[in-house]
Design goal:
This protein is of the alpha+beta class. Helices cover 25% and strands 21% of the residues.
């Protein structure tokens, strides 16, 4: 009975957010759309994002192209925590609201970003790249600190357990589902630590909606739509 339940858990068709390490699934598989997939794709990280049938990364790729960062996310052995278009739109909205406190008619658009902030954005995008392969076998529940490609920036990456039914938990399973989670650190984090206990004034968490994809050059984890690009406005 348990075996059957765990098997069914790997195929949840109604997941809003997709888990990365569910009980009963092969450790090297990844989940997307509620379906287990072979983790290896015969494309670079950039090409895989570009091939997305739902065009969830079009705005992100436009920023990458304008900023000249294609080689960065395609560098051998790199791990890219890819934001989606939703993160870009959230960022533009937050910037617009800030500008409208001064000028109610102001609007911050992608054109504004490219015209005035491209150099700064090119630097900030580097926070999503870690120059080593963070595959499932490298991750733990406690988490570890990693230098990102943004100078002076550090992130924590961990498997974070969940007891949310939406994320695959139910009380008849023997192992709690775990989700690959990226913590952007705003302040130094002392050792030892556990990722789940990182205070929100020290770091902001973003779970991955798809994870464990092995491209021809590195590893790809896709961030859920919960935070604006660059975690803008989340710093306490």
């Amino acid at each position: 009975m348990y075996k059957r339940s765990l098997y069914k858990l790997c195929y949840p068709m109604l997941f809003v957010v997709l888990t990365a390490a569910l009980p009963g699934c092969k450790k090297n598989d990844y989940l997307t759309g509620g379906t287990i997939n072979n983790p290896k794709v015969n494309m670079t990280t950039y090409d895989y994002l570009q091939s997305n049938s739902l065009h969830q990364f079009d705005s992100v790729l436009l920023i990458i192209d304008k900023a000249g960062l294609k080689e960065l996310i395609n560098q051998q052995g790199a791990t890219f925590f890819a934001p989606t278009n939703a993160a870009v739109y959230a960022y533009l909205n937050v910037r617009t609201l800030a500008m409208q406190k001064v000028d109610p008619s102001a609007k911050y658009t992608l054109d504004t970003l490219f015209r005035y902030d491209l150099a700064r954005v090119a630097d900030s995008m580097r926070m999503y790249v870690i120059n080593q392969p963070l595959t499932y076998d490298k991750l733990t529940a406690d988490g570890a600190k990693y230098a990102t490609q943004l100078p002076g920036d550090t992130a924590v990456v961990a498997f974070v357990p969940t007891n949310s039914a939406v994320l695959g938990y139910f009380n008849q399973i023997s192992n709690v589902p775990q989700i690959v989670t990226y913590f952007q650190l705003w302040q130094p984090l002392e050792d030892p630590f556990q990722a789940v206990n990182i205070p929100n004034n020290v770091g902001v968490a973003n779970i991955c909606q798809t994870s464990g994809i092995q491209t021809t050059n590195g590893t790809l984890h896709v961030l859920a739509n919960g935070n604006p690009l660059f975690f803008y406005g989340t710093k306490k």
